[in-house]
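Why do we care about 3D structure at all? Because function follows from shape, and shape follows, mostly, from sequence. That is the central idea of this module. The next example makes it concrete: a single protein chain, its amino acid sequence, and then its structure expressed as tokens.
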Amino acid sequence: MPDGIEFDGKTYKVDIIIWSTGFASPDQSSPAGRANMTVTGIDGQSLEERWQTMEWQSVHGWNQRGFPNMFWTGLRQAGASANFMHMTDTIAMHVAATIKQAAEQVGSTKLIIQPTAEGAREWGDQVALSAIALAGTSGCTPSYYNMEGAADKLLPEQQAKMARNSTWGKGFNSYYALLEEWQARGTLKGLEVTAAS
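And the structure:
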């Protein structure tokens, strides 16, 4: 009779086991994949393919280069909060303010908005720098935070991609302040905004 859970050759003693099924990591698939639909960008690549190859190209996590005018809330390259509704509201208000500023900037309400390649690269760099705060999760008990333990076995290039595609590592208050400062500057730095014809 076993007296615990065995993993990787080691037994972990437990008093009780709660077995849960039907749960999927929020980072397992793209927003389109979670909705069971295919979204194809202007370059012919699907959003799900972009997600799975970890080639995320956003500014602040709520948009994607090659998928203009597509906005969402989520965790990848964005701030995370235990209060999901607060996080969703913050990003929605940020997107609305961005659209308003963009309309004023180009003098039209018919807009095309997407990150510039440079803006997405710079934001990815900032996310990667903040990811050090999340580094401790790689050695944790296997979970979706560390790819069920596989994160420790990734090549350095793969770990770098994971860092660029992680959640903002400085906490939600830092992320919120960053969005507020970005909006206050009014330059829409990192975004390509044009009037639609």
